[in-house]
Automatic annotation (TrEMBL):
Its EC number is 3.1.-.-. The keyword Nuclease applies. The keyword NAD does not apply. InterPro entries: Metallo-depent_PP-like (IPR029052), PdeM-like (IPR026336), Pesterase_MJ0037-like (IPR024173). It comes from the Bacteria. One of its GO terms (molecular function) is endonuclease activity. The gene is pdeM. Keywords: Endonuclease, Hydrolase, Ligase, Nuclease. This is Ligase-associated DNA damage response endonuclease PdeM.
Amino acid sequence: MPGALDIPLAGETVVLLPDRALWWPRMSLLAIADLHLGKGDHFRRAGIALPRGGTALDLQRLDALLDATRAARLLVLGDLLHAVVNDAPWRAAWIRWRAGRAALSVELVSGNHDRALRAQPALATTLGLHVHGPSLAFAPFVFVHDPADAAPPAGYRVGGHLHPVVRLPGVPRLPAFRFDAAGGVLPAFTAFAGGWRVDREPGTRLFACAPDVVVDVSR
């Protein structure tokens, strides 16, 4: 895939994709974190003016990744939702998108914004989701939302929640993957997210998501 970068991780080969996703070819699994559906609707209802179209753009990006990888399984590492607004446009857009991907298994490791999905199983069913608890062990990885939460089962932790970004000379901040000996953090998939600045340090690998390429910025 153009611009993608294969790396070894916990004894497996995974592929980092410029559009902020991790592809595990052996398991036909595409992982993303922090989609935050409904965030724009939630802010607009609170009186904060935001541009429309964020959900449609994110779903178009997701379609492109699924077409490129032909993944059988999409795993969202928490915060698929931002807030439940039952009559908001994001919900209809997601249901239409899900109907067009009926053969795809869409799974969620619960994040702090996904309370409604845990409390309302019928909502998860309507949205075509299989909701796991706070962790999903899939050796050698343990997929989580917040890597700082209480220790999950043994394994190499892969999560989201922190929205890592890097600053490079002369360019705007870029979403980034961060990996160390204990685990890794994926960048937020949605473009509408803040960021946690991460810096180079010993024992840490950083990979910046430039518009069309993943760049190793660890050194």
